[in-house]
Design brief:
The structure is a homotetramer. Chain A is 20% helix and 38% strand. Chain A is α+β, with helices and mostly antiparallel strands. Chain A has 2 domains: 133 residues, Rossmann fold (3-Layer(aba) Sandwich), CATH 3.40.50; 129 residues, Tumour Suppressor Smad4 (Sandwich). In chain A, the strands form 4 sheets. Chain A has a 6-stranded antiparallel sheet, with no helix packed on it. Chain A has a 6-stranded antiparallel sheet with strand order 14-13-11-8-16-17, with no helix packed on it. Chain A is elongated. The two termini of chain A are 36 Å apart. Strand 12 of chain A pairs parallel with strand 14 of chain B, so a sheet runs across the interface.
Chain lengths: 270, 270, 270, 270
Amino acid sequence: MKIVLVSRIDDEEALRYTASLARDLEDLGHGVTLEEGTAQRLGREGIPFEEITGDLVVVVGGDGSVLLTIHQMRKQVPVLGINWGEVGFLADLEPDEAGAFFATLKDGFRVERRMRVSLSVDGKHLGDALNEAVIVTERPAKMLRFGVYVDGIPSERFRADGLLISTPTGSTAYAMSAGGPIVDPQIEGFLLIPLAPYMLSSRPHLISTGRILEVTLETEKPAHLVIDGQSTFELEREAKVTVTRSSEPALFVHTGKPFFEKVNYKLRNL
Amino acid sequence: MKIVLVSRIDDEEALRYTASLARDLEDLGHGVTLEEGTAQRLGREGIPFEEITGDLVVVVGGDGSVLLTIHQMRKQVPVLGINWGEVGFLADLEPDEAGAFFATLKDGFRVERRMRVSLSVDGKHLGDALNEAVIVTERPAKMLRFGVYVDGIPSERFRADGLLISTPTGSTAYAMSAGGPIVDPQIEGFLLIPLAPYMLSSRPHLISTGRILEVTLETEKPAHLVIDGQSTFELEREAKVTVTRSSEPALFVHTGKPFFEKVNYKLRNL
Amino acid sequence: MKIVLVSRIDDEEALRYTASLARDLEDLGHGVTLEEGTAQRLGREGIPFEEITGDLVVVVGGDGSVLLTIHQMRKQVPVLGINWGEVGFLADLEPDEAGAFFATLKDGFRVERRMRVSLSVDGKHLGDALNEAVIVTERPAKMLRFGVYVDGIPSERFRADGLLISTPTGSTAYAMSAGGPIVDPQIEGFLLIPLAPYMLSSRPHLISTGRILEVTLETEKPAHLVIDGQSTFELEREAKVTVTRSSEPALFVHTGKPFFEKVNYKLRNL
Amino acid sequence: MKIVLVSRIDDEEALRYTASLARDLEDLGHGVTLEEGTAQRLGREGIPFEEITGDLVVVVGGDGSVLLTIHQMRKQVPVLGINWGEVGFLADLEPDEAGAFFATLKDGFRVERRMRVSLSVDGKHLGDALNEAVIVTERPAKMLRFGVYVDGIPSERFRADGLLISTPTGSTAYAMSAGGPIVDPQIEGFLLIPLAPYMLSSRPHLISTGRILEVTLETEKPAHLVIDGQSTFELEREAKVTVTRSSEPALFVHTGKPFFEKVNYKLRNL
């Protein structure tokens, strides 16, 4: 197989582990390439995220490293995360489980598709979010006013510190801190969660991806839209954000761990 | 069309309105039958819920009357609710909107399917819930212990006052009081919500109907399972409740009101 | 000192520990009496809860055993709980910490007063709650309607599964499962928490004990009032429950453990 | 009486009302002074907030105007707010109620003291908050890590978007949006509420003002501390914020409206 390795670059041990993993995978007969930043830290040659192709990307890091990789790849390649962080919902294997997985790699693996939300503002595509996009104020402690349109129909207006637009995958990330439900990634929906809403009746909403979803900023205050904690965009006043299901889902290696067992175990240990 | 009329029977005005509606519909050329209880109160002949057939059932009442009708019909017929209660999420038309609807009835109507959950205990089918099934203790203020199995895998265990198993339709009913999200009825999922869970990390879960879901009672305390607030069953100790998507969804006349606009309007006015 | 020992009676190890503790305390020169139920299980003589007097009651058990003891004592005597249960917020010492405590007992101990709420219905005193009183329906899954009067003024009306009236001490018990805040026991207040309230704007309220607080049942459905999970009372229709600060606080031995450190540690490990 | 008038200056009607109120109060024999900004807009002479003295300050505006006035006054003078905003929890009278109040003003009025929290960072006093101080990140969607010390003892550590330190008065403001309880202003306590906490067991805490409360920033990310939405301070890395009960409470004219009746009415109409 053609495998690309990515390591978090702020952790010497993760880098050493990645270098040793590269040797092991080559010994197993796979073709191994390093991502550019990782390669640099190991004194080797590599390719930028944007040019990643092949059968598999192995990411040694936490959820942030996995998000970064998926965010930067031009074309989605199946990702396997080896958890080198605190709590890894996206980095599915612990380092001590990796050996067993790679031993059977030549027999192939199952791929799990995870929907992403595509964000556009006034017709311009900003990017795709695997976990969530969040709209927040630029000024501390100043509320924004939002309008939500479903299938073109005004459905809700509220004031809040911000608004999260999460995927089911993101339901165990920021959305969970903000009070949202855990959503099965086999369900396709847009999870809308207001941050500290002023109106007490504001509740998380899960909206079918079959709907057309638009969010408008109804205040003149400056705001930011942040995708997966990776990219930040300035929103103009009265901006209209269009939310659709991305045509390019993220691809994950399915390691056989049942979603709900994994999630509830991790929740209890946050 | 062949139309059956059901009225709440504890409200004289609703009954009078129903009688007058029967005349109007007959004048429009439809065949009208009354449900037995409604008929009795109007001094006429009727048919029991179980024998309802035809093109349309019109229910004059609140959500309870709609739930009762759907619960009792042996075979689902499309339901139109005319709201004669407090807040009607299921009774879609206000009385003053009914005339306009019936005027165009002969041209047909769109039917909206709403999934129901089918509840079985130790292999025996108890019934289908349009809104929710709830498992609660028989003894006030005593917690139960639950186990949740997804696809046969133990996924969660917790202690709580009770457990709600709701449909998306039920997400604006009891599930909402219990802290759940609003779920688009276009999404098919089982919404699990613990009532006053002891473990603080317990969160509402939305589980795909493609999964096999089982809930076990892990305490020896007696408990009840209540379906849509209509039927109550005693659960034996260590009972295992199997939750599946019912093969018979409820059928509603689609009156053209957008779901989210309606819901958010009603929420603000609870 | 004159010490009374109480053990949970459903656990042989707790009973053996209690018997051995009795000998140790007598060896240290203290006068030891056993509570009647405990005594019976150990084949000895004892006194009923109601007749407990002296300097100190040591309870070997969980929070339930401590609540039972305080509930039954006619006159409050300082209580020390040795935790023989799951999570003990009221049973302050772990068994392995008890030796060090008793070694210095002859030098005296500090007593911490914890407010209780006194519950009366239509002028008749029902009892005092150290943790909470809860009003719940007798029929599963049927909402009650409540009115809340503060200083005689109607302040809130809502429908809910039930209503918790908790003390600050109880804020880490049932009230916490029901979504309430953690309240410092140095604060004196009545914590009102609706269970699954229908109106989304219903929030936990903390009301000064300087206020006159009354709760009315506004539905004709039968309801129960349960005090500390120990005593259950039937509430008549339209009952009015008067809540006051009990003139007899519970007395606890202050073992020097800081409240918030203890609470947050236990919360993380529920 | 010596009365100072303050108006919101962005609303012509409020200014006209204030000018007319000035005449009315002078006709009733009171000495009236205008605040400088208000005076300027009316083409008259005034005094700066800092120099306000006298018997009474009347503020025509919303809660923001009342907060600004209390924030800027060097020495607290009793405040009466006439609500010229959306929902006024601090601006107690509606304009049509003002006449009746002023008619009996010469007989005096009752003053209600509302505690404020005093915020210091590394020994330097930053200001007093009537509603709340909030610590938030400067960078959108990046969590902060906090430590909470009660009486010098480490009591909690958590990651969150921010942390609110609210008074009971502030419990109906930002703290409510963030999920806190309603707290009787007759209770004196510090209400700590994390914003979108990562650890699910994080709950609002109400801590007695008799305690010493310190909050530390445990991340190296830049953060802001905002007092009552009025003043913003940059927090240095590893800053320690000390929270005490201010020795100068805010003073309000007690208009006789019962707190809980008022609050619940307004909550239902947010």
